[in-house]
């Protein structure tokens, strides 16, 4: 499984985003920080790949309209730590080791519809204890995505996007945080907690997540 992770991300790494600035600009253009209350100033690029039965994993650019049938399987995650430039040829500007842990989440702020978000936020995934598959020890001038693998079950298991018919495009927002001490003991979200009416900023403040270090988002509709 670990070798598959590494091969998948190296093989299709060029399909996603290269620049933290571009991702940040896309978030603000889509009004994600304004509508959700997050402070988004990423220091890394989060890459998301959806496994496909007969093809390579499906990757997307931030803000891309993604076919709903491509999102059914739980995604794989990786971090690109030198994402401040427009090219992966620049040396990474930060490093992570296998001892560093991260929390990753996905939520929908546009449920039931973007115009009437009465049940938002909907939590589609929350997992901790993600760490890089490898230490970031690539030769100078080379920067490839670092696959993240988690060592414990998800706090809130994957629920694939299911926007209602005729509800338009929903923003599905992935965020990565550095995991704080004691996160495994938090009880605000458990397997039994409703996924509806979640408040990410309240949760992040309560458990000490701080601001996200990376993120991306996709647009999904029922009809596509």
TrEMBL record:
A Pfam family recorded for this sequence: PBP
Signal sequence range: 1-15
Keyword annotations: Signal
InterPro entries with a match to the protein in the record: PEBP (IPR008914), PEBP-like_sf (IPR036610), PEBP_euk (IPR035810)
Domain of life of the native organism: Eukaryota
Protein name, UniProt field: PEBP-like protein
Organism, scientific name: Leucocoprinus leucothites
């Amino acid at each position: 499984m670990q070798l598959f992770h590494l091969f998948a991300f190296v093989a299709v790494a060029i399909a996603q985003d290269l620049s933290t600035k571009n991702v940040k600009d896309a978030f603000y253009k889509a009004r994600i920080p304004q509508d959700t209350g997050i402070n988004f100033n990423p220091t890394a690029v989060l890459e998301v790949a959806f496994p496909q039965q007969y093809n390579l994993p499906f990757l997307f650019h931030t803000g891309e309209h993604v076919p709903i049938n491509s999102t059914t399987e739980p995604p794989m995650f990786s971090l690109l730590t030198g994402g401040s430039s427009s090219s992966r040829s620049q040396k990474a500007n930060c490093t992570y080791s296998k001892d560093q842990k991260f929390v990753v989440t996905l939520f929908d702020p546009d449920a039931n519809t973007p115009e009437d978000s009465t049940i938002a936020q909907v939590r589609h995934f929350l997992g901790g204890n993600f760490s890089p598959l490898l230490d970031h020890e690539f030769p100078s001038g080379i920067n490839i995505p670092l696959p993240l693998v988690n060592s414990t079950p998800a706090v809130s298991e994957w629920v694939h996007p299911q926007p209602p018919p005729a509800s338009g495009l929903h923003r599905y927002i992935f965020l990565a945080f550095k995991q704080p001490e004691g996160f495994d003991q938090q009880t605000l979200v458990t397997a039994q907690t409703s996924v509806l009416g979640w408040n990410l900023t309240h949760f992040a403040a309560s458990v000490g997540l701080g601001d996200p270090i990376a993120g991306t988002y996709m647009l999904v509709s029922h009809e596509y």
